[in-house]
Design brief:
alpha/beta; globular; two-stranded parallel sheet; seven-stranded mixed β-sheet; Rossmann fold
Length: about 270
């Protein structure tokens, strides 16, 4: 090979290497941008069919009792990984935005909860949740309310939660909740003026379970009774047993043992859409 051809080959190789470097920078930049978008509460892929919005509590105390509370860890982690395995993206929101206090950390012994606690990005995401008022409902296929006693102290009285959820259901979205998560549904009304839960089968942390954990006096109301007042048909199992019910596009579960199965039922509904 002559000197001219060698020089030309070197020139081509140099140009190729430069092009590869540029491509890697672009890919890395796109990944960072998508991660930032997701942290802000916008699905990175922009495909609402592949996004689930978790609506969490900001309440850190049980009203005037001062007892610590928040969102229950496994009711976040078990559905989170179930949705992730199905290829869905999850975004965290809350009534005020910002910090979501956690309970149930001391009970975390299962692999998924421990994995979640070790993930610095996920733990940071729970400290920087997006205010629900800034979220576009059209970006999501489903919403999910994890439980924890904290939900009883801010979700029912949040007009933002009520308006967002009612419009979301009216638009054909799937609404789901577990344990105390249905507290976010008690004041949700649809366009027809009826409560979302009216005439639907609903499962939640029962009055019997609340008394069993000796927190019935600390609650602003008993969730099962309140949902019945709103016209819900309560479906329940024995205390602390797994129980999930699907009623139209509403999926609810009774307690922490039901969290993963709520996610599974949501996935089945989404496949039918």
């Amino acid at each position: 090979m002559g000197p001219g051809r060698v020089a030309r080959l070197a020139e081509i190789m140099s140009a190729t290497a430069w092009a590869l470097c540029v491509a890697m920078v672009v890919v890395a930049g796109t990944y960072v941008a998508h991660a930032a978008e997701a942290a802000k509460g916008t699905p990175a892929g922009g495909d609402k069919k592949k996004a689930v919005l978790f609506i969490l509590t900001n309440a850190a105390t049980m009203g005037s009792t001062g007892k610590p509370t928040g969102a229950y860890l496994s009711e976040i982690t078990h559905p989170y990984y179930e949705f992730k395995r199905a290829g869905l993206e999850i975004v965290f929101a809350s009534p005020k935005g910002g910090v979501v206090p956690l309970t149930g950390i001391e009970d975390a012994r299962d692999a998924e909860s421990l994995q979640f606690l070790k993930d610095a990005q996920l733990m940071e995401a729970l400290k920087t949740t997006r205010p629900l008022a800034d979220v576009k409902a059209a970006d999501y296929a489903a919403i999910f309310f994890p439980g924890g006693h904290g939900t009883m102290f801010d979700l029912p009285d949040s007009q933002v939660v009520a308006d967002f959820t009612g419009k979301f259901y009216d638009a054909g979205g799937v609404v789901s909740a577990v344990c105390h998560g249905p507290a976010g549904l008690v004041n949700v009304k649809l366009a027809n003026g009826k409560y979302l839960v009216e005439g639907k089968h609903v499962s939640c942390f029962t009055d019997s379970e609340e008394r069993a954990v000796k927190l019935d006096k600390a609650m602003p109301f008993l969730l099962e009774s309140k949902l019945e007042e709103r016209g819900a048909i309560i479906a329940k199992a024995d205390n602390f047993k797994m129980h999930v019910v699907v009623s139209e596009r509403l999926v609810t579960g009774q307690n922490p043992a039901s969290a993963k199965d709520v996610a599974k039922e949501v996935l089945l509904l989404l496949k039918k859409k």
